[in-house]
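call fold(seq) -> tokens
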Amino acid sequence: MDSIILLFIGVAFTFGMLINLTGLPPMVGFLLAGFTLNFIGFESTDNLVTLANLGVTLLLFSIGLKLDIRTLFKSEVWGGASIHLIASLIFYTAILFVIKQLGVSLFAGLDIFGIVLISFALSFSSTVFAVKILEDKSEANSLYGRIAIGILIMQDIFAVLFLTISVGKIPSIWAIGLIALPLIRPLLYKLLDKAGHGELLVLYGFFLALVVGAGLFESVGMKADLGALIAGMLLAGHPSAKEMARSLFNLKELFLVCFFLNIGFGGLPNVDHLMIAAVLLVLLFGKIALYFLTLSKFKLRSRTSLFAAFSLANYSEFGLIVASLATHKGWLTRDWLIITAIAVSLSFIIAALLNKYADAIYDHYRIALKRYQATRLHLDDRPVRVGDAQILVMGMGRIGVGAYDALKTTYGEKVMGIDYNHLTTLQHREVGRRVITGDALDSDFWTKLQLTNNIKLILLAMPDHNGNRYAAEQLNNIKNCSFKVAALAHYKTDEQELNALGVNLVFNMYEEAGAGFARHVWTDFQAILGKSPQKMDL
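ret:
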């Protein structure tokens, strides 16, 4: 086996583990590993670049699998992305022009076109890093997470337009045919139904991401990564889409290690490079402030605006593409490619720290931040009220619905269901169930949930143990309430974990299923089976 590959793996694991022990995301360690390998004389390889690109493609495909395209049409997404891009462009251009007038080295040779070009590159945020942060926090489906991802997609569209104009490469006439992709969705759905749950499902995911998505878009002159994202969006409504995302998760994470390593190979800096990169890092906080102020204008809560801003608080790898293109065309010197690489890498570390301590930062500056919050909040960001309900059922799947219906026969309208899918909520309401929309895995939901002393019992009926566990953790943080909590579990270890979190009653589905099945059979067939000579208590 290639000794260089073994070295790369060993160094990446060592730095990743050390950083993980500090509580920061391992990706920061992978960045430092790339810098270290670069410092001791190693360079990126073609294989590393290929694997890095594969990781990015799979990441965007996975996001597409979970993305509701309607998010892009929300004013806070397309409006926020557009306003922020213009505001950032003005902000960076003005600051960099002032620095040029001060005669700082490497700025003296920049003309106004070069300054605007650098400002444009710095206005973008990293799709890969932001999405990775949101996934690690399990908040990609939160309101602020959806807004951040939507803004990133809009930025990708702006990037496609820039590259098309700057390179002078107009997409092929066949690119028009891409608008017909939704027509093949029924076929893609049928193939997903037939793919099963094993290796064929994983291979089908690769086929969609690399062939139907990236390959097809690239062949007609469009951005390959955008194609992978759209390919995922074509399957987003299928019940097995989340299973496909889970099946690709570990492979995607492994390939993304190569991406962060590769960023660290951007070039060896000198003192001037480091000083200018440090200035750009300071200016990053101006970019964050612009995100916060822009999103606040769309009537979002201060917390939502701040968390979305922190998710986008970095410079983008697209900046490296712009710098590389500008260097190739003679618009910028190679110094700016190295500076951009350093600024992008260090911005990831800043963003990781901000996101790690986001809750603490918000709590500390809550009063000051709320001054920017609108009086009448965005419809999706208003408090979640449960009214006079006494029993809450979180998770209106088959088990949750069964529990809801059984409780309703006794307690009537005092029972309320909560489900993360708004379409499911509407369907339940049509048949007379009292259900509201809320995602128990979304930290935003818990900050908006307004429980009253009327609540006596909360049932955690979500099919995923992680959801029930997270909800139990959040319920533990609610003070001055005397409600009881019951939850589902699949395994004994899950049951023990929920009990340790203070859940009053845990129903082990697998252990109880046999007894429930026996009761059901005995009820229907006792006339045939007759009485047992032994006492039977079913």
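Residues 75-101 form the longest helix (27 residues).
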